[in-house]
Amino acid sequence: MVDLKAGVVRILDQNSATVGTGFLVSADGRIATCAHVVKGTQPHVAFPDCEPRPTQVVATDEVHDVAILRVESNLPPGAVPARLGRSADGRYHEFRSRGYRPLGGMEGIPAEGKVLDAVSECPGVQHEPLLLQTQHVRGGMSGAPVYIPDLDLVVGMITGYWDSLMAQTGFSDRDTALATPSEAIAALCPDLRLEDPLADFRRRVLEETRLVNLAGVPLPRDRAGQPIPLEVPLDRVYICIQAMPEEQRREEREAERRAVEEGAERGGLFRSFLSPGRKSPGARPRRPSPADVLAVLRTLGEYFYQRGEVYQAAERPEPVDPQAALKEKGRLVILGAPGAGKTTLLRYLARRAADDPRGPVPILVSLRNYAAHRGAGGQQTLQAFALERASRRDPVQRRALEAAVRAGQALWLADALDEARGWREEAAREVAALPGRLVLTSRPVGYERAGLERLPHFEVLPLAPQETDKFVRDWFGLLAEGRGEGEDWIEARAAWLRSQMADRPRIAPLTHNPLLLTFLAVLAGEELARDLPVHRAELYRRYVEELLATWEVRRRPREGAEGQPALRLGPLAGEEARAATLDGFTRLGWRLHLTYYGGQGAALPVWEELKLDLARAATPLEPERGRGCCAGWLTFSPTS
């Protein structure tokens, strides 16, 4: 934070009498003060504990009562220019100041108070003055800075107090002062930039969310089989996912329950899920209760989503745009299957908010990362953790974000509650305590409702056919631009994908999932398009193989010369590491598949359980190599 004493100066006239205050605004020696302070004088300035220095008046604005002086000699050591910020950002904030009002022979007196608002309806004034609530401003304080500690910025300059205007107003108000806004100072110094930490933050959010996050998506390949680097603008391919409120979902659930129950009676579904094992001879099969049915539906919910069997296009309920729901509700929860577009939705909402200077301030936070922080012994609250990450530990931006939170201007975008392993209940409570607008995402499996019961909940719907078509054409359009192709190429690729889906009914429902649809579009856009697999298991395996190849390309420049083995897994390298990694992914994927779709557990498996599974898989290896592979499987990522 700024030491006001380091940049505030005493203004003296040609007789060395104190006539007011000023403050340094640039490293080249420019000082801001009031025009009425230096009018008719040959001003000198005195920095604290320094002899007076001569100055020149280089610019004045009597309408806004601003003058800019330039010191004719070198600045003293330790002199620090003020950082000017927008006056609007300082409204309703506490301020501090320092000036040279006489007080029993003492000078350099601190002051404090609160910035209220701008004074409206000031004829002939372009930059409306600020009204200050303070008891410390008196004669000699003219030209003192209005410094906002919360922002670490100066937003104005004191120009007068109400007692001095008594002849015009007819009354005095000892708690009121006026300040000219920082914009009037900057107008006389065109090279000075008014700092706006929140605007800088919004620009950074826009840049960081400009592209689709392709970390989990394989890249398309050229004719030589090499992955093609790809940058995908989010605004170019984003499809606004649609959701349905839980209240509307109740009737749909009841219809699903009846349909599944009837199917279970005919096909034995509940016998396999609810009555495993051997029964006593002669025992009559137990009719499943409604609670049993709902328990199975909870496990199968994401399975139905992937198959696209929950809603046929003709039965599709009236959807809800999450953006509209956020505007109406202010705080909500979005539940959806893996790959349904929840994280992308948050990034899109962040872009929309960041692009609106009057909109809320978007603060993205990964609950998985927060759980890792707490698991490593971190003690920060979720709010403090989110602000630290969002500000990139920049103290100025951190204070600006904190001020936005206090003013109720924050939009919290909390991602993946289901991934906050070991900390879900605490994370849920802390999410519920975040002030302001909120969107929380989670998969249904692993969702913790503690403290969130009163928030409106929405469930993501599978992509409708028209949304799928638009998504695919947008992707092919982007790929066509990179290859120099035209509309004919786009139509040919789209037709090829439609034909492949028509011949492969087992994988066609995957087009309802944005992540898997992206992969299908990537495969369809390759220069040497290969027929898609007929079965889902084959398609998933190809997905993992393609993704692993993409990760190898991304890691290789940091792993050694081009052509050298880039992939390492514990003690293994090259093809041996690749084979072991694929095997590990297969085992991990099967375990998660059983959790989501196989009825074996209502929560995601914890690391210790996964370690046991992988340790069993690694037993054919020597113990040391097996342990190394197990650790590698659990920590493998494209950035590790």
Keywords:
640 residues, alpha+beta, Thrombin, subunit H, Rossmann fold, 6-stranded antiparallel β-barrel, 21 helices, elongated
In short:
With about 650 residues, this protein is α+β, with helices and mostly antiparallel strands. It contains 21 helices and 20 strands.
What does this structure look like?
By secondary structure, the chain is α+β, with helices and mostly antiparallel strands. The chain has 5 domains: 4-187, Thrombin, subunit H; 258-276 and 286-315, no CATH class; 322-460, 3-Layer(aba) Sandwich (Rossmann fold), CATH 3.40.50; 462-532; 535-640, no CATH class. It is built from 21 helices and 20 strands. It has a 6-stranded antiparallel β-barrel. A 6-stranded antiparallel beta sheet has the order 7-8-9-12-11-10. Mean pLDDT is 79; it is low at 267-279, 293-316 and 557-565.
Give the strand order of the largest sheet, numbering strands 1, 2, ... along the chain.
1-2-3-6-5-4
The total of beta strands comes to 20
CATH topology of the largest domain: Thrombin, subunit H
Name of the level-1 CATH class of the largest domain: Mainly Beta
Average pLDDT level: 79
Measured as a percent range, the helix fraction is 40-55%
